[in-house]
Amino acid sequence: MPTYFDTIAMSFENVKIDDDGIDTIQFLQAADALSQMFSLFNSTAFSVVQNDINGNIRKLRERYEATGDKSRTIELLVQNELAEKKHNATQGLLWLNRGLRFTYTGLKHSYDHPDTELSTSFTTAYGATLSKFHNFITRGIFSVAMKACPYRAALLKSLGEPQDRVLTQLDEWLAGLDKLTQRIDKFYAEGNYGKGL
Description:
The chain is an all-alpha fold and 197 residues long. The protein has helices at 4-7, 24-40, 47-67, 74-83, 88-112, 118-128, 136-147, 152-158, 163-191; strands spanning 17-18, 21-22. The protein has a single domain (20-189), classed as Orthogonal Bundle (Glycolipid transfer protein, GLTP), CATH 1.10.3520.10. It is globular.
């Protein structure tokens, strides 16, 4: 029986990185697949995250479609957009990466602590990632949403069988996601691209 990871068009660990950076199309395909994963949770808990991720993917895709080869990597996309004194996709990538980092942190915590429920893992992840960027109202929305997380066992079952294969694939997927989000964070920090966004 195919697992979730067998069915997606692109997995984070397979996204190409060359001298110019992270392949834009492959990165967006992998982010799309992550958004689809939230649908497997059968929970409204992640709808706010899923909507945010989808909106930011759309900003990046629109920029790519408008500029083509000039935006073939994520890094080139940001640099050529800012050179035009625009920042819509640059801001979109910043927030997309924050959402991806939140997801990575929550799932990694769950992977490393199999006796801990998802609500705890994602509440911990929220405090470590997105919370500092949100106002009081948004933090309250997330606090309620994280309490509505499905059980860990239900999530793993929704990702497919056998479980040992799912866990191996999840570990590889998480490693790829970690590598990409850290690279984007470093790119923004070194270029000071996120200032004022």
